Amino acid sequence: MRYIGCHLSTTGGFVNTVKTAASIGANTFAFFTRNPRGSRAKEEDPADCAVAMALMQELQFGTLVAHGSYTMNLCTADPEARAFAAQILEDDLRRMALLPGNFYNFHPGSHVGQGAEAGIQQISDALKKALAPGYPVTVLLEAMAGKGSEIGGNFTELRQIIDCVGSDEVGVCLDTCHIWDGGYDIAADLDGVLAEFDRVVGLRRLRALHLNDSKNPLSAHKDRHACIGEGYLGEKTFQNIINHPALKDLPMILETPNELPGYQKEIALLRQFEE
Ligand code: ZN
Ligand code: FE
Ligand code: FE
Question: Which residues contact 2 (CB under 8 A, 6 or more apart)?
């Protein structure tokens, strides 16, 4: 049994979202904790969340992978904007506690010229503070394509954040498009890349995957997602991923350019790959 899903809107509530997921063959999903390009969030309904949790258990769903806002930059240069981003992180984790045991994934941030070292420190400081209340949520750092001044474009930076935070509640989400664009050749040598991840970060920290093909060649540092099989990674890469012993039990989230029918097709395609 693989846990495969896609990004879904939760504006109709979580119970409806679980039903939508099930209707397209998904058994996990991702959702934005607030407007992906803004900061506005609506408070979740605790009763709706509780019913959704029970329904997911009944349907044997895997762990959900919530996604923080793209605009939340924990290492932006302006101290006031940085404090605001840190507040958003804290608020997201507080609201995630209504869906206990699930994952909260976010883009570590862009240091915008401050340098990677300063950026890593600022991200870690915000994380330490946000994790202090002990909400029942595991936070995942998303591996990035290394576009512009993005932090997390290589495994070493992810490890540095984890070490700085010093918490077991921090894991990693590998986005296949991002790491390919970042220079990790998962098409030719998936085993080699995972061995390097294990050496640098530790496979036990790997908690989720974003499955995206890439519109660009290896090391392009671009971050443009393609549909599965329609980019440089190709179907075979995803066949390998779906069946890899270190990956096959992780929640796998599609972030491909699709509407629901397209996602339904891709989920079915990935399930066909299962050996
Ligand atoms: Zn992402
Ligand atoms: Fe992603
Ligand atoms: Fe991306």
Answer: 242, 248, 252, 270, 271, 274
